[in-house]
Amino acid sequence: MSVRNFEVKSYPEMWKSLDMNVERFEKMRCVLGDVFQTTYLTQENRPKAMDYFNWIVSEIHGGRIAEILELKKQGSPIVGTFCVFIPEEIVIAAGGVCIGLCGGSQGPVPDAEKVLPRNICPMIKASYGFKIAKVCPYFQVVDFVYGETTCDAKKKTWELLDREVPTYVMEIPQMKRQRDLNLWLQEVEDFKSKMEEVTKKEITFEDMSKSIKVLNEKRKALQRLNNLRRNNPSPISGKDVLLIEQIAFFDDPIRFTSKVNELCNELEGRIKNGISAATASTPRVMVSGTPMAMPNWKIHNIIESAGGIVVNEESCIGTRYFKDIIAEDSNSIDEMLLYLTKRYMKIDCSCFTPNDERVDQVLSEYENSHAQGILHYSLQFCHTYNIEAVKIKEVCEKKSIPFLSIESDYSPEDIGQLQTRIEAFLEQIKG
Amino acid sequence: MIVGIDIGSRTIKAVAFKNGQMLDYQIAESSIDPHRQALEMIKKYHPAKIVATGYGRHLAKKHFAQDLITEIKAHALGARFFFPNCCTVLDVGGQDSKVISLGERGNVINFQMNDKCAAGTGRFLEIMSTSLGFALSEFGEAALESRQDIKINSMCTVFAESEVISLKNQGAHAKDIAKAVHISIVEKIISLLHRISYNNEIVFSGGVAKNSCIKELLQQFLGIKIYVPPVPDITGALGAAIFISQGIGHQDKMTDDNVIN
Fold first, then answer.
1. Beta carbons of A91 and A203 less than 8 angstroms apart
2. Residue B256: closest CA among chain A residues belongs to which residue?
3. Do the chains contact at A428 and B108, CB–CB below 8 Å?
4. Are A372 and A307 contacting, i.e. CB atoms less than 8 angstroms apart?
């Protein structure tokens, strides 16, 4: 154990200045610290380079917020997003900070349910709840949020969220024809104009080239990490990789990239020296489906506590975020935006129809990660992923790939049932 | 002597097993303190090894069992003990129901569970039998005597119970309502079966398999043969005992520590 008496650091003065519900948030940060301690810091034989990511968690609501506030003071726009479709490259090119605001905990769900219907996805409820209950410092520091239209519950919630914080919406097409690409390119151009309007400064070719490079490097580092963790035996736990994939959405991108690469160097050494997070006979599970936003570690924790290891996340907080990079050989800003749009159009979110490329992607990640089974994870009421699971199940049956479909939310009430299913799934893999 | 113990939601089942034979079994309603109760039940066997399954398996492992397996695997092993070629197992217990698809070697290749609510489980039957004034043990027979079809529309135990109350108050016969209750469970089970591939012979285990009406309706609706082990309640406990007696027990870590609550 590298860290003892872990705590998420308290910054009551700063929180007060951000108009937060400090009393309630104080309790929440204690709970987060305890859960992190028991979920993460009890793992044996973790890579040394995880210390940085532990530190980020300890400063998640303090040090990192102070950094963002400092940038804000210097004139950087702070943009909140909820989806991997919003082009971070444009925010960075405008000198801004891009923060993924997806909520991953049960805490603020009851707040949201006072307003929103209960039967919508927990991620939307948690995100909205964090804002109205004033218990998320990231939500308090953003200048505006940029939502998107990947599902009905989201796009209608943005209308309500706009009353709390300025909320702009980018239309994401639901098909992938030429006219959809054209529409989306226009949306990307509008987003660029919006950022320019906020900063009162034009985004130049150089700004864009630089930001594309920064984010390509970040995505490449995550690809490198994912390739290394796929080694059998895995040099790092699935939980740790998930944590890094979550931190990718709010950390400083350049520092993050260098820390992920540092970790990768260590993992290469571990592989060479035969140091691993689990034995080679440990059942290897690939998780596929909806994103697991911080601190949603529920499924990974059950799998790894039951003697399995997660070797891949086919998810927005996972490969969907980093599998594609943007070509860096464009000659004009227009061409850049087109390349960018094309890169984003490769995201195989289940909001598209048809979306058969996702089935192929799942299979290819299954092969490449040397997984032995696929656990499809759908957040409750996420209709598109839930329905698409049918196709993934069919192809798994055809190929005799052990498959388990789980639908769950953030509450702990189904832990017992999930444990039974997941343990039985691991038994099934072991044969 | 090897003991398999199945600590379920409603009952605790123990099986004593030696040299490939089941020597004894016990079934008891579970108390507030299931692991002590379980230990009390099995101490007379002086077991060399204990394998736990069911909802209380982790608790049992923490206190006295050497190994644990899930109910899925336990029912698969137990069903194969009586029906060595079976490839589909249906288990309907007190709190959940599950269907398991087995490969030729008896290995689990697919499973589906309904455990989010009481619909389609023993608990549903129990509540409905009480509401209609039948003992649980005679509920199935009574339903088989029904001559008139009525339908219960609600799958939810709470709503179905109010539906039963309104049917009673409309003057419907208790046996006809009983049949409707059974049909509603069977429909739920069939939708679960459709989620896996099943063949023409299904082994039906768990306490609910003792209900003759459920078995009869399943055969009728699916047009297939349903086999029920001699004492269907103990299939899981038996499977747990078989697991270790076959030497397939494992020492892998399967702990319930570190689970976020």
1. no
2. A305
3. yes
4. no
B31-53 pLDDT, tens digit each: 999 999 999 999 999 999 999 99
Q: Does the pLDDT value for residue A197 go beyond 50? A: yes
Residues 6+ apart with CB under 8 A from A162: none
**How close, in Å, is residue A410 to chain B by CA atoms?**
10
Q: In sequence order, which residues have a C-beta less than 8 Å from that of residue B49 and are 6 or more positions away? A: B2, B3, B66, B67, B244, B249
For A49, the 3-state DSSP assignment is coil
**Dist. CA A141–CA A73, nearest whole Å:** 11
A279-318: pLDDT as tens digits: 999 999 999 999 999 999 999 999 999 999 999 999 999 9
B96: nearest CA partner in chain A: A417
The verdict on a CB contact (< 8 Å) between A302 and B259 is yes
Tens digits of residue pLDDT in A127-160: 999 999 999 999 999 999 999 999 999 999 999 9
Asked if pLDDT for residue B95 goes beyond 70, the answer is: yes
Model ipTM? 0.89
How many distinct helices (H) and strands (E) make up chain A?
19, 8
- Give the number of other Cβ atoms within 10 Å of residue A82's Cβ: 26
How many other CB atoms sit within 10 Å of the CB of residue A93?
Answer: 27
Q: Are B11 and B136 in contact (CB under 8 A)?
A: no
- Please list the residues that pair with B50 across neighbouring strands: B3
